[in-house]
Amino acid sequence: MASPSNLRFRRQHPAGTYVLDFYCPAFKLAVEVDGEVHARGDQPQRDAARDDWLYKRGVRVLRIPAQAVLSDLEVVVRHIMVTARGEYPSTGFAGPPPPPGEE
Fold it and tell me: Which CATH superfamily is domain 6-85 in?
Protein backbone atom coordinates (compact mmCIF):
# COMPACT_ATOMS: atom_id res chain seq x y z
CA MET A 1 0.00 0.00 0.00
CA ALA A 2 1.18 3.55 -0.68
CA SER A 3 2.57 5.70 2.09
CA PRO A 4 0.21 8.42 3.42
CA SER A 5 3.16 10.78 3.73
CA ASN A 6 3.31 11.12 -0.04
CA LEU A 7 -0.33 10.94 -1.05
CA ARG A 8 -0.95 11.50 -4.74
CA PHE A 9 -4.22 13.11 -5.75
CA ARG A 10 -5.85 13.70 -9.10
CA ARG A 11 -7.81 16.93 -9.49
CA GLN A 12 -11.20 16.97 -11.19
CA HIS A 13 -11.21 13.17 -11.46
CA PRO A 14 -14.18 11.66 -13.38
CA ALA A 15 -16.19 8.97 -11.57
CA GLY A 16 -19.28 7.81 -13.45
CA THR A 17 -21.39 10.91 -14.08
CA TYR A 18 -19.58 12.79 -11.31
CA VAL A 19 -16.37 14.79 -11.13
CA LEU A 20 -14.47 14.51 -7.87
CA ASP A 21 -12.62 17.55 -6.56
CA PHE A 22 -9.64 15.38 -5.57
CA TYR A 23 -9.11 11.61 -5.75
CA CYS A 24 -6.33 9.44 -4.32
CA PRO A 25 -6.46 6.09 -6.16
CA ALA A 26 -3.96 4.38 -3.82
CA PHE A 27 -6.34 4.84 -0.87
CA LYS A 28 -9.61 5.06 -2.82
CA LEU A 29 -10.26 8.38 -1.11
CA ALA A 30 -12.21 11.29 -2.59
CA VAL A 31 -11.79 14.71 -1.00
CA GLU A 32 -14.60 17.14 -1.69
CA VAL A 33 -14.16 20.79 -0.74
CA ASP A 34 -17.66 22.09 -0.07
CA GLY A 35 -18.63 25.74 -0.26
CA GLU A 36 -21.78 27.19 1.26
CA VAL A 37 -23.90 26.06 -1.69
CA HIS A 38 -23.64 22.47 -0.44
CA ALA A 39 -26.00 23.33 2.44
CA ARG A 40 -28.70 24.88 0.26
CA GLY A 41 -31.74 23.54 -1.54
CA ASP A 42 -31.52 19.92 -2.65
CA GLN A 43 -27.72 19.92 -2.65
CA PRO A 44 -27.41 17.93 0.61
CA GLN A 45 -29.56 15.15 -0.89
CA ARG A 46 -27.58 15.24 -4.13
CA ASP A 47 -24.31 15.04 -2.19
CA ALA A 48 -25.65 12.09 -0.16
CA ALA A 49 -26.67 10.24 -3.34
CA ARG A 50 -23.24 10.89 -4.84
CA ASP A 51 -21.47 9.73 -1.67
CA ASP A 52 -23.61 6.57 -1.61
CA TRP A 53 -22.78 5.85 -5.27
CA LEU A 54 -19.06 6.22 -4.51
CA TYR A 55 -19.30 4.17 -1.30
CA LYS A 56 -20.87 1.28 -3.21
CA ARG A 57 -17.77 1.33 -5.42
CA GLY A 58 -15.38 1.23 -2.49
CA VAL A 59 -14.50 4.94 -2.46
CA ARG A 60 -14.45 6.81 0.85
CA VAL A 61 -15.55 10.44 0.66
CA LEU A 62 -14.07 13.10 2.89
CA ARG A 63 -16.07 16.34 2.80
CA ILE A 64 -14.25 19.42 4.01
CA PRO A 65 -15.82 22.88 4.27
CA ALA A 66 -14.07 25.41 2.05
CA GLN A 67 -13.82 27.73 5.05
CA ALA A 68 -11.67 25.14 6.86
CA VAL A 69 -9.29 25.03 3.90
CA LEU A 70 -9.03 28.81 3.91
CA SER A 71 -8.63 29.17 7.67
CA ASP A 72 -6.26 26.31 8.54
CA LEU A 73 -4.87 24.36 5.59
CA GLU A 74 -2.28 22.57 7.75
CA VAL A 75 -5.00 21.03 9.94
CA VAL A 76 -6.98 20.01 6.86
CA VAL A 77 -3.95 18.31 5.28
CA ARG A 78 -3.25 16.44 8.52
CA HIS A 79 -6.89 15.33 8.68
CA ILE A 80 -6.67 14.02 5.10
CA MET A 81 -3.49 12.07 5.89
CA VAL A 82 -4.95 10.51 9.05
CA THR A 83 -8.16 9.62 7.20
CA ALA A 84 -6.20 8.01 4.35
CA ARG A 85 -4.43 5.79 6.90
CA GLY A 86 -7.82 4.80 8.29
CA GLU A 87 -6.93 5.92 11.81
CA TYR A 88 -9.72 8.47 12.22
CA PRO A 89 -13.27 7.10 12.31
CA SER A 90 -15.04 10.06 10.73
CA THR A 91 -15.04 11.18 7.11
CA GLY A 92 -16.82 14.42 8.01
CA PHE A 93 -14.61 17.36 8.93
CA ALA A 94 -15.34 18.38 12.49
CA GLY A 95 -12.04 20.02 13.25
CA PRO A 96 -8.63 18.56 13.67
CA PRO A 97 -8.06 14.92 14.51
CA PRO A 98 -6.92 14.11 18.04
CA PRO A 99 -3.27 14.72 18.89
CA PRO A 100 -0.88 11.81 18.19
CA GLY A 101 -1.21 9.10 20.79
CA GLU A 102 -4.83 10.03 21.58
CA GLU A 103 -6.36 8.78 18.33
Answer: VSR Endonuclease (3.40.960.10)
